Amino acid sequence: MSRSLLPFLLLGIGLDASGQFPVLPTDSVIDHPGRWNHRVEAFASFDHNANTIYNELPLKLLQGGYLERELRQRSLDAIREKPRNSAGYDLESRLTWTGRDCFLGHRNWRPIVSIAYQEHMGIRFTDDLYDVTFFGNASFEGTRADLGPSAYEQVRYGSLGAGIRDARSNSFVRIDLVTGRSISQVDLKWGGLFTGEDGRVLRANILGDLFQSDTATSSLGSGNGLGAAVSGRWEIRAKRKTRPTTFAMEIQDLGFVRWNANAVRIEKDTLVIFEGFRVADLFDLDAALTGEAQLLDTFGLRYRTGGRTTLLPFRASGSMTMCLTGRWNATITIDQRNLPGYVPMVCISSSHRIGQRALLAGSLGYGGFGGLRVGAATRIKVGDRIRVNIGTPHLPGFLMGRMRGAGAMCGIDIGL
Amino acid sequence: MRYTGTKLWVASLIAGTLISAMGCSKEDGPAQWDVDLLAPLVNTTFTIGDLIDDTLLDVSSDGSVTLLYQSQLFAVDMDTVLKAPDTTFFYGAGLANGQGSVNLPAGFPFTSQNDLTRFDLEDLYLRSLILREGTLRMRLRNEIMSAIIGTFRLPGSTFPDGTNSITSEVGPGSLSNPTYSTQSRDLAGSVFDLRGPAYNDVNTLATSIDLLLDPNGSGATVNEGDSVVAEITYSGLIPQYAKGYFGDRTIHIGPEESDLDLFANVVNGTLDVDDVSLKLRVENGVGVDVQVRLDHLRAMNSHNGASVDLSHTIFQGPVNLNRAVDLGNGYAPSVYTTTMDNTDSNVDVFLETLPDQVTYELDLHLNPLGDISNGNDFLYYDSKLRATLELEVPLRVIANELTLEKILDVDLPGTEDAHGLQSGDLRIFATNGFPFSARFQMDIVDAEGQVVRAVPLQGLIASGVLGANGVVQHSVDSRADAQLDADGIDLLYAGNRLRLRAIFNTADQAQHVRILDSYRMDVKIAAGAHYLVNGDE
Lengths: 416, 537
Known about the structure:
Chain A is mainly β and 416 residues long. Chain A has helices spanning 6-10, 28-31, 56-63, 69-81, 127-135, 285-290, 292-298, 396-399; strands at 39-50, 65-66, 86-98, 109-124, 144-146, 150-166, 172-195, 202-212, 225-238, 245-259, 264-274, 277-278, 304-305, 308-311, 315-323, 328-337, 343-354, 358-368, 372-382, 386-392, 406-415.
């Protein structure tokens, strides 16, 4: 293999899809790039991250059961120490087929077909919102809890797409048909809840809206919306004689979903003052204890239905990869995802080939939903045709207690 | 060696991931956490109109409030005076034993009888009767080998359709195998002249019945013992109008009890009223003179068992009621009224018993002077002899531990086994402009009303500040707190109920305090709750 092709092959085709995981670049010894006419890649990842909330909280939320007060308090203490709170997760599973070359007469163009299921959640929230949610409003007696600005989005969707990939540069473009499973969006631009002394009054200032797809049909097999997305990568190599360097720009799932008319929404720009239900009789407590409908009316929480088009939680990234030696590579990636609470993330990865069958990588990242992260990943060559990838974006999340963020990915790449 | 280390690291990572994933299963149900919530629950403005129905209050120009309460004491319906029992008469004919056999041609009148039907109405002597409801039924039994046509007539009566007969046909029968037929007609609106054929009798109805062999048949041979019987039944007779002489007789009423809802929610304490007047109004809607002898009128308090008999001169002698006036299509009742007050009766004590029931016993003497109407006593369907109590109480009172009670069925979210509400407290804030204090009491009671657990409640809603003129000058802010702990909450979820009592004491226990229409008490209740998120099933 010509050494001049090496820089083009250094960028991986699977793991570099996520800026959160350490980059495992394509290695000429382990991956044998260009050797296979067809390739099938299966890939799954889960990545949770937060900048203030400790892992023990979301883990317990997932596990169920009672959340100890001390556990909630530890995250609250951490929240109070920082000016910004965010959290989120990405869940993705994808199966991709890459065909042989000579697609449409172009020697280096290869067809790709990809099917995926993804789930993304992002949230940014105020300290008081967490406090009210996990401890109630009693401690805010006589004061205002600032619930906004806060935002939340959770979206689930599946996609089926087709496109082409340039075998030389790994640049690609793919068009996906997207089926929206569910979405929940809350954008609280401003929200304040004043709890009067002794609870005699609740005063809420609300500017925000809520949108939610049809909750009756949000299971995995059903769809509540339809849309389209485009993903692509453009990669160029700087012409240097030493330490070849490659620059890449990538966009994933830039698209939309049109949610059907059964979706519900509430848009509020209001001030609500609640001093209790007005009753005619002092003894008429029955209605006050059971008046759910009255409560909904009082706070204007009645939904209205209607369709809406939303952007997908697309991700845009740019990266620069430098080949340091024959075994060492370094990559710096910066990415941003269209989710509440996500800030640009910078990740520096370095990989090293060990022997003829293993590639190890480590990463140091900062940003996204969380703070500083230390990741690790490896690729193992099994036999001649199979490569197994596993990794984590934040190794301490598994090894140390009271950390923030955890994730794992695994993938298999089969050459045919 | 280095390669082996890598494999171990990878294996550890995979194992860790799997363990974490397995740990994500929600074996313990959805995540739950407890929060402390604080929110206003209800607010209300309490006026005297909330304590006593507005319709019972009269407000004078100076704002003083007078309670005007009316309740029916008793009502003697028409059926007490006039009862028309179901009555059956039999008409028949046959060939007696020893008379052999007779061949009768088709259309032969087997029998034709004119008769007088006398109704047994005891002391009533009716001359005419218009029915509101009733049924006339003719049932034929035939033992002759020919169809029989039976016709029953009431010559002195008129059915609503202008006729006065009923006809039925019964098929051929035999002694051993008689045949039957039944024909009925609605008597609603029928007019009966009960003076008989000579118009000089009472309770008597002229009738005739014809039983003849079917004119289109072939006749029949009648053997000895064969008979045809018509059974005429008057049933369900309810008069719309009756006229006659209703007799010189005495009807005893009672002892009976009548509910009094004025103090239905008051379960304890005393109420000292300054001035009371009670008007007894008796209305006679029956066209008969009546002499009423009241034996007693007793106030009963079922909560404490207290009772007081009303004493007044009315109980010493009869009350004479004139007869109502017949207007032809209705009546004008005669009315008797008498008023009692503190000076000529013990009506204040009677009322201060806080009765929820009144018992009474009396005699009604009809026509004490005999048949002075010459048989023109009358009654209509809605004629009643009824008595009402009209109570007038200026609200100048002394309340001492006067206790109002209400039992609430608390419908809380969740189930007995899983409920988010763990414990809570109610904070009652009042700005009281009434001249009485209020103390609240909460208890959890079972289905029988027995106290299962008392809810601790501290604080007193203080009375408004009285001025020298006995009128409230300033409202007073107060607070009371009720604690509902986890055990109490569990008891409510177990199907028990919440009993709420308000205990009132007037600010001045030495003299009567005037209640003004302008008095207000603003009440706000806030609730603190220890709530388990996702705790409701």
